[in-house]
Amino acid sequence: MFYQQPFYFSRPVYSITINRSLHKLTLYRDSIVFKNYPVAVGKPSTPTPVGTFRIVNRAINPGGPFGARWLGLNAPNCDYGIHGTNNPSSIGKDVSNGCIRMFNEQVIELSNLVSIGTVVKII
């Protein structure tokens, strides 16, 4: 008799790298580039922190300038995150208070893929 091992689906592992100087967020799926998104980052007086962090909280429609989604990072004071924007003309610029801004439709897409604990490297 032929015995076949059960087939298990494994969830893909996502990670994110944000390049501040290129204003680009790269989403990796199982260590392979999956998507690239344009972003806005912190202005010189309130720069986006550099380092390796994790997504620690999330919100749908957080309101105000945070657009359609909030993905909070365990960066200093937990005051930083990846979020949408109510000012889409800011994408591609150094204008935020340190957070990473994305177009609302793109942050929704990203939020649907990543989970709490996803590694976010900011360079």
TrEMBL record:
Active site: H83 (proton donor/acceptor), C99 (nucleophile)
One CC-aspect GO term: extracellular region
Gene3D superfamilies for this protein: L,D-transpeptidase catalytic domain-like
Protein's pathway: Cell wall biogenesis; peptidoglycan biosynthesis
Protein keywords: Cell shape, Cell wall biogenesis/degradation, Glycosyltransferase, Hydrolase, Peptidoglycan synthesis, Transferase
GO biological process: cell wall organization; peptidoglycan-protein cross-linking; regulation of cell shape
Taxonomy, superkingdom: Bacteria
GO terms, molecular function: glycosyltransferase activity; peptidoglycan L,D-transpeptidase activity
Boundaries of every L,D-TPase catalytic domain copy: 14-123
Pfam family, one: YkuD
Family: Belongs to the YkuD family.
PANTHER family per the UniProt record, alphabetical: L,D-TRANSPEPTIDASE, L,D-TRANSPEPTIDASE ERFK_SRFK-RELATED
Protein name: ErfK/YbiS/YcfS/YnhG family protein
Lineage of source species: Bacteria, Bacillati, Bacillota, Clostridia, Eubacteriales
